[in-house]
Write a structure and sequence with these properties.
Number of domains of chain A: 2
Structural class of chain A: alpha+beta
Shape of chain B: globular
CATH architecture of chain B: 3-Layer(aba) Sandwich
Order of helices and strands of chain A: HEHEEHEHEHEEEHEHEHHHH
Distance between the termini of chain A: 23 Å
Number of domains of chain B: 1
Radius of gyration of chain A: 32 Å
Radius of gyration of chain B: 18 Å
Strand content of chain A: 15-25%
Strand order of the largest sheet of chain B: 6-7-8-3-9-10
Oligomer: heterodimer
Largest interface: A-B, 20 and 26 residues
Number of helices of chain A: 11
Largest sheet of chain B: 6 strands, mixed
Strand order of the largest sheet of chain A: 2-3-8-5-7-6
Chain lengths: 399, 242
């Protein structure tokens, strides 16, 4: 009975270790999926243009809060020309700012964006009520605004905001539409945003003549690489950049962003798995301990086996099979236990309102199983070799 | 000498333990032919067990020569010794050494599992061995369900299963009552009658006299090597009375 309890406690080390690897892999995988879903929610056939140079892997300077003014509205015009970027479907330019917005119901600190009229088409956003502004309103610097769904609820809790006015930086804007709910997508939350025409934003609110960002919709996913090249070529010509000088802008496809994010989140995930794996080493030491005890208790058995013809290799494999058996049993229970925990976590997070998927990948199970086999081999080999050195003469001893 | 099985010359064994040198055996020289029934006899600590361990390839001599079936065993490595133990030698121990919580059948099968050739006839070999010791009806019992005499008969079956040249029996009746002991000696004599070499290690004259020849060991040396004049035959009831 004591021996059974001891074996169980030893296996418990492996169970906990494998379970934590499974839990970390599952939660890591789900978190990764959540992040990637948000990015790809913007659309996977989009290309972003940012001001300022960047190397391919790192973020551009403008993303770090440094103001770069190299991207202008005239660049948008150039890119729109069919002969420059034939795969372009539509393009939208953004300027971003934050200010206090007031309605008769109160005032809020909010972000706003000045965008061209093509926003809905490029980002695939739907209207809940009213309309979006048109090109003419943009060029005329019309004082009209479209609200994200949350912002509409905040400013006008119990009424239709369309036709009402708000104050942005002490300028009154007429609300002409409300966007339907979209949820958090990428790094900006459409639902909390206030949209005004690009020029109204540039000239009336911010007093600048450059744009912060442009987003291009490409006709087909497969044409993205070609389009990126076209965009770069057009902008280099437009900015008169000489052959060997580097770009003063950066072009990113969302596919590229997903790739980068995947790499980053993978690194994080495997780092956490490695931390969890430390507990497996502790479990492995326990296995080694129990196997050494087992070898000690079975000296006579090993002696007998050698007396009837077992070679050292036979004894080594016998004990290795036993230790691997123990760790694999522990691994199986660890996988079951870890899956249950990950499932529970998924249920809880889902109830908190996140779009969380419960993910147990085959690779996690394969990894956990092979790690438990590996632990059995690594921590079983020393006791096994020790057993193989037992002399066959031990069989002749008697108590 | 076509019948010669074992030839030892000047065999010595010295144990070193924490700097202390202990001479367990020295100068053993004799020959054993196929089909002999030999008792190695002596008081405890005389070196008879050491001699058996060397003859049974459980241990190596520190000096001297050991020829087995004509070949010098000095050059045999661990695996070669394991192979000889597996193919040529069967051991019967005083304390039986059966694996507990394991069936009689599996206990007897054990040496076959360490044979390089995967035998198709394992089942038949095991059953034949069990039949020869009269234990076939217990094949599916666990070894810990048997009596002492039954255990020793199973152990003999295990020693026989690989059809060895020699059976080594180390005090095989030491843990048995006289009736079971007699039964074991009867089986050993029967095996010898059918042509197998048997080497018995014992400290009892009575048990030793079931052999045809007795080698006496004392203080690490062979002091006598004589044929048995009045051999005991383990089949009469009268023997029980003695």
């Amino acid at each position: 009975m004591a021996a059974k309890l001891r074996s169980f406690l030893t296996i418990l080390g492996i169970i906990i270790g494998i379970a934590s690897v499974i839990v970390v892999m599952a939660i890591g995988g789900s978190a990764q999926k959540l992040i990637l879903n948000q990015v790809s929610g913007v659309g996977s056939n989009l290309v972003g243009v940012l001001p300022g140079a960047s190397d391919e892997k790192g973020p551009p300077a403008s993303a770090m809060g440094i103001i770069v003014t190299t991207l202008k509205f005239t660049d948008l015009k150039a890119l729109t020309e069919k002969r420059n970027v034939p795969n372009l479907v539509d393009i939208v330019a953004y300027v971003t700012g934050s200010a206090t917005v007031k309605s008769k119901n109160g005032s809020y600190q909010t972000s706003y964006q000045g965008v061209t009229a093509s926003l809905l088409n490029v980002e695939d956003i739907k209207l809940k009520s009213g309309r979006f502004f048109i090109k003419e309103e943009d060029t005329n610097m019309a004082r009209v605004a479209v609200l994200g769904s949350n912002r509409a609820k905040d400013l006008f809790p119990n009424e239709d905001p369309v036709g009402k006015t708000i104050n942005l930086k002490d300028l009154s804007f007429t609300i002409i539409g409300v966007l339907s709910e979209r949820g958090s997508v990428g790094f900006s939350n459409t639902d909390d945003m206030i949209y005004v025409p690009l020029f109204s934003g540039q000239k009336l609110l911010l007093g600048i003549d450059y744009v912060n960002f442009m987003r291009i919709k490409i006709d087909f996913k497969d044409n993205i690489d070609r389009a990126v090249i076209d965009v770069k070529k057009t902008l280099r010509e437009k900015h008169r950049i000489k052959n060997d000088a580097s770009d003063d802008f950066s072009v990113r496809s969302s596919a590229q962003a997903i790739e980068t994010l995947t790499t980053v989140t993978n690194v994080l995930k495997y780092f956490l798995v490695a931390v969890a794996a430390i507990s497996l080493v502790v479990g492995g030491v326990g296995i080694m301990n129990i196997m050494l005890i087992s070898v000690h208790q079975r000296v006579r058995e090993v002696g007998l086996r050698k007396a009837v013809g077992a070679k050292n290799g036979h004894i080594i494999s016998q004990f290795l099979i036993e230790s691997v058996f123990v760790t694999v049993i522990g691994g199986i229970f660890g996988i079951i236990f870890g899956t249950l925990v990950a499932f529970l976590v998924a249920v809880i997070i889902k109830n908190l309102g996140y779009d969380w998927e419960f993910i147990i990948t085959l690779s996690a199970i394969v990894l956990a199983t092979s790690v438990s086999v590996f632990i059995g081999l690594v921590f079983g080999i020393y006791p096994a070799i020790k057993a193989s050195r037992i002399s066959p003469m031990e069989a002749l001893r008697y108590e | 000498m076509p019948n010669q099985l074992i030839q030892v010359q000047n065999l010595c064994k010295t144990y070193f333990s924490e700097g202390v040198e202990t001479r367990a055996l020295c100068g053993a020289t004799f020959e054993i032919e196929k089909g002999e029934f030999i008792s190695i006899m002596g008081p405890s600590g005389s070196g008879k067990s050491t001699l058996m361990q060397i003859l049974g390839f459980l241990d190596r001599p520190t000096e001297g020569k050991y020829f087995f079936e004509g070949s010098d065993t000095f050059s045999f490595d661990d695996d070669a010794l394991a192979k000889v133990r597996n193919k040529k030698i069967g051991f019967v121990f005083q304390s039986f050494n059966l694996l507990s919580r394991t069936s009689v059948f599996e206990n007897v099968e054990l040496p076959l599992l360490y044979d390089e050739k995967i035998g198709k006839n394992n089942k038949k070999k095991v059953m034949d061995a069990l039949i020869s010791v009269g234990m076939e009806h217990r094949a599916n019992y666990f070894s810990n369900q048997l009596s002492g005499g039954e255990k020793q008969r199973v152990a003999i079956a295990r020693a026989l299963v690989n059809d060895p040249e020699i059976i080594f029996a180390d005090e095989p009746t030491g843990n048995l009552d006289s009736k079971s002991g007699l039964q074991v000696m009867k089986i050993l004599q029967k095996l010898n009658d059918s042509g197998r070499t048997v080497i018995l290690v014992t400290h009892e004259t009575y048990t030793a006299e079931h052999a045809k020849r007795i080698i006496y060991v004392k203080d690490g040396s062979i002091v006598a090597d004589d044929p048995v004049r009045r051999r005991r035959i383990a089949d009469s009831e009268s023997e029980l009375l003695k």
